[in-house]
């Protein structure tokens, strides 16, 4: 296992389009997290899964954002009707419950 | 409101000196504390974790935890230009989720 993988690394999209990102966690990790980060800020929590169950979703997250983790393996994060304010680095991380997180390389989204 | 406070910096340290990064947290129930390093445009990388009061050393890095005063610090000895990065402090809350600080930017001057 080579760590947490995210795809794509970069995405440029026009405002109003839908985008989907994928995350493949470390296989033995049962938790998977999605974060968003903008320049000069710490990671902002979006949502997390324990196995296939989505246990929490940030109240800051609009209903344009949705995440899935079918079968408790990889996860997808979809943003519908993208806005310029969605431009950010989207980070996926995985962990065992009581441990620190291992992050993927992130997906940098630019909405033009 | 669970919070982590860090000085945003930048903290400028001469090469070879000791860099000292500090972090305070609000949740007295916190048990696990983490330091992440983040290079510009890259994702955070875990460099140290500490669970018990006192010091924990790993190579040039020492994490210090004082639960009574609710602070955790990171010391980097013999600072190198490659240590220049943003250092993020975080703790696990009661739901085992990481609560993050905004990070301190460290610059090591050759």
Feature tags:
heterodimer; A: mainly beta; 7-stranded mixed beta sheet; 4-stranded antiparallel beta sheet; 11 strands; 50% strand; globular; B: 110 residues; mainly beta; 6-stranded mixed beta sheet; 55% strand
Overview of this structure, please?
The complex is a heterodimer of chains A (112) and B (110). Chain A is an all-beta fold. Chain A contains no helices and 11 strands. In chain A, the strands form 2 sheets. In chain A, strands 2, 4, 5, 6, 9, 10 and 11 form a 7-stranded mixed sheet that branches. In chain A, strands 1-3-8-7 form a 4-stranded antiparallel sheet, with no helix packed on it. The model of chain A has no long low-confidence stretch (mean pLDDT 92). Chain B is an all-beta fold and 110 residues long. Helix content of chain B is 0%, strand content 55%. In chain B, the strands form 2 sheets. In chain B, strands 2, 4, 5, 9, 10 and 11 form a 6-stranded mixed sheet that branches. In chain B, a hairpin with a 4-residue loop joins strand 7 and strand 8 (71-76). Chain B is globular and about 40 Å long. The A-B interface holds A 31, 33, 40-43, 45, 48, 56, 89, 91, 97-98, 100-106, 108 and B 4, 8, 32, 34, 36, 41-46, 49, 88, 90, 92, 95-98, 100-103.
Largest interface: A-B, 21 and 23 residues
The multimeric state of the shown protein is: heterodimer
Question: Which structural class is indicated by helix and strand composition of chain A?
Answer: mainly beta
The secondary structure category of chain B is mainly beta
- For the residues shown, what is the average pLDDT of chain B? 92
Major sheet of chain B:
6 strands, mixed
- Give the H and E element order of chain B: EEEEEEEEEEE
Low-confidence stretches of chain A: none
Portion in beta strands of chain B: over 45%
DSSP summary: helix tally of chain A? 0
* Tally of strands of chain A: 11
Secondary structure tally, helices of chain B: 0
Low-confidence stretches of chain B: none
Strand content of chain A: over 45%
Q: State mean pLDDT of chain A (0 to 100 scale).
A: 92
Instruction: Name the helicity range of chain A.
Output: under 10%
